[in-house]
Inverse folding.
């Protein structure tokens, strides 16, 4: 069966697989929204690493463990499709993005997009990231408690627009930011109809605003390319020739979404953990003392093992995207069970990051597990997957790592961070891990 022949809705006939569907109609939706890790842990402990469940009005099969991730993500025989699975979640708003392409089309477009992530381009981004992030941090309140989350979200969105779209004195970044935020809000609505005043209608209107801006820039960037993602895509060629203007626009909108929200999630988690484990502020600040100058370069990363371990452990405990979804194209077997054609399959990354057979005391924050001496993440190449794996492995992982590490460097070399003593942070785990009730902190100069 070809991807385009798959029915719109996944196969609901999964009763032969252990598990349960929860409440009638809504299934385990509420549990997924309010404590997805607890629900996933219950399903794993009760039914094993292959189980059926239902949430968000869809039945699916959950798979847990490195072997399951390897089976789904490597997929050399092309049994699993990403587009019909993710289209249900982000389709319409982020149409045409790399995540919504499969097999030969995906390979062709990925080769073109890789031009925007080569080392010379990343080095140019590195310099601008130091500047933008330092300037943004200097505008934040000092010595008083404030909600970090909206400040961080705004800073990273403006930074992403500047890095991805390039320097344009006529660009109304505030209008683009408002349009993009409307798109993000629309991804959380269950009513995906253009109802007047509804989130979906506002999100689609926001997409049109960003499309119009990008369309106005493409010919200019082709004629006079700069050191930004948009220029790189405008000059990138796939094996058939140039990407079309519409394809460039679709990819730019999706890249903005993928880069902004995941990094906002990671830095929210990292800052909260720094407050909960202040000894790591001291350790990282001490390691940063060996860096020459006031900027972090790509060459510095290899000399900062404690920062690397901290970064990896944050992503182990709090991967921004909790799992990866696919649809089976044809019937196949896994773990002794038949997965029918057109079955929605979900590989839980967060559950895998907490498996005691792969991690020592997995509930404990312990960056040293990634040290050269312990290297727990190397016990299996598919046990630590915050960036996914296989053909769809995150193309921007080096950009995300660079942005996160530069932010932590610029933050900690200037400030110590503490939580508001009257604030207890709560976490929303889906569709992406974010603070549920804000993240109130205070910055104090060091």
């Amino acid at each position: 069966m070809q991807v385009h022949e798959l029915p719109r809705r996944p196969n609901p006939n999964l009763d032969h697989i252990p598990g349960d569907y929860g409440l009638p109609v809504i299934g385990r939706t509420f549990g997924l929204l309010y404590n997805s890790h607890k629900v996933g842990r219950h399903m794993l402990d009760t039914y094993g690493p292959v189980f059926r469940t239902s949430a968000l009005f869809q039945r699916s099969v959950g798979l847990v463990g490195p072997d399951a991730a390897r089976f789904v993500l490597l997929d050399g025989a092309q049994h699993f499709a990403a587009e019909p699975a993710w289209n249900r979640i982000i389709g319409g708003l982020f149409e045409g993005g790399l995540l919504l392409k499969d097999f030969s089309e995906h390979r062709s477009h990925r080769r073109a997009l890789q031009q925007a992530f080569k080392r010379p381009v990343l080095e140019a981004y590195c310099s601008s990231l130091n500047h933008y992030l330092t300037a943004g941090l200097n505008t934040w309140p000092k010595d008083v408690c404030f909600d970090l989350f909206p400040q961080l979200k705004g800073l990273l969105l403006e930074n992403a627009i500047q890095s991805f779209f390039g320097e344009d004195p006529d660009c109304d970044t505030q209008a683009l930011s408002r349009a993009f935020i409307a798109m993000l809000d629309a991804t959380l609505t269950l009513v995906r109809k253009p109802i007047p005043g509804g989130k979906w209608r506002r999100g689609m209107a926001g997409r049109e605003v960003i499309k119009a801006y990008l369309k106005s820039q493409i010919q200019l960037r082709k004629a006079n390319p700069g050191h930004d993602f948009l220029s790189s895509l405008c000059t990138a060629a796939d094996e058939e020739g140039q990407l079309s203007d519409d394809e460039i626009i679709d990819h730019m909108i999706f890249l903005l979404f993928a880069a902004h929200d995941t990094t906002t999630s990671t830095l929210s988690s990292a800052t909260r953990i720094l407050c909960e484990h202040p000894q790591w502020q001291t350790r990282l600040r001490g390691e940063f003392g060996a860096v020459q100058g006031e900027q972090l370069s790509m060459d510095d990363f290899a000399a900062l093992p404690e920062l690397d371990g901290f970064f990896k452990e944050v992503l182990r405990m709090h991967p921004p995207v909790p799992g990866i979804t696919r649809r089976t194209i044809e019937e196949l077997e896994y773990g002794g069970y038949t997965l029918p054609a057109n079955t929605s399959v979900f590989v839980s990354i967060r559950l895998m990051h907490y498996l005691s057979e792969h991690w020592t005391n997995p509930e404990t924050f312990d960056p040293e597990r990634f040290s050269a001496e312990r290297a727990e993440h190397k016990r299996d190449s598919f046990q630590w997957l915050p960036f996914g794996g296989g053909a769809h492995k995150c193309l921007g992982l080096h950009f995300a790592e660079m942005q996160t590490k530069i932010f932590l460097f610029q933050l900690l070399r200037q400030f110590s961070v503490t939580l508001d003593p009257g604030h207890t942070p709560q976490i929303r785990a889906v569709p992406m891990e974010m603070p549920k009730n804000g993240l109130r902190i205070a910055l104090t100069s060091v």
